[in-house]
Amino acid sequence: MKAGLVGAPVAPAEAYDLALVDLDGVAYRGHEPIEHAADGLTGARERGMRLVFVTNNASREPESVADQLTGLGIPTTPAEVMTAAQAAAQLLRSRLERGARVLVVGGAGLRTAVRQAGYEVVDSADDEPAAVAQGFAPEVGWAQLAEAAYAIERGAWHVASNLDLSLPTARGFAPGNGSLVGAVRAATGVTPDSAGKPSPTMYRMAVERAGARDALVVGDRLDTDLAGARSGGFVGLHVLTGVSSARDDVLAHPGERPHLIGADLRALHEPHPEPEPGPEGWWTCRGASARVVDGVLELGRGGDGSPASQLDEVRAACAAAWSAVDAGATLDESSVPELATDLA
């Protein structure tokens, strides 16, 4: 898979037969819809693209997620939802026999997934569980974290649904499962195994379930969604409606870089130009250009300030920065401005 941006001369909704779509920050934000999400996704279906919603959220059951999406104008069935709870249950199967006891710290989604995988769900370390499955739920508190720590200290295998430090809500960013896992890890000194993104496990499970030929990952976080795409060998589309920004794209580590960049889910219906190298170190993308000189990112003049030209500026800046860094240069992060801040 190419290390840089790949470009898409035709709309991704026509080039790929399946989209693996993140939820928070992509399809919705907390309980609020994200502008253009419903039209972008329903329009992709109309063009023949199938959808599977792949989320690190382990607290909710697929039926609940499907109902929320349907209520936001994105008709969805439970079979089109893949959660980190399901991935964690799959990971448990790699070491535990059916019928083993598992202490579940999390919400209904994780409890159901573990039970459906054939395990006995318990709530106390005194039940001598073989494993602790930990996922986020708003009701998780000190008592549950303490039971997890007691069980792990006694030898239980610690499996985390995901390690996201934060999660987006309608009011801002709140502590995610990774923050709660960190409390247990600090108490026990044991590093858990994780089933969620950036592991590509869920993506591969979703592709296998759908029988897809060519899947596209769509996400808002470089460290989970796009890192999972890179590690799994999938093309990743970063939409700028959630956690990671356009500036983050320019500064991204190789394993977290997107292949495509879009303002929102309308990007499924738009061609994506690929930046091209030019003279004097300039990289150009239609009317935008960028280069790195002595570690400093320079942006060329051009473009009309429209959302399209702002995205081209981001693409050119990514190409210039990534090329320089991959060649051994050090990029001065202070020279990278906030980019694409007005894409409405």
From TrEMBL:
InterPro entries: HAD-like_sf, HAD-SF_hydro_IIA, HAD_sf. It holds the Pfam family Hydrolase_6. GO terms for molecular function: phosphatase activity. NCBIfam families: HAD-SF-IIA. GO terms for cellular component: cytoplasm. This is Haloacid dehalogenase.
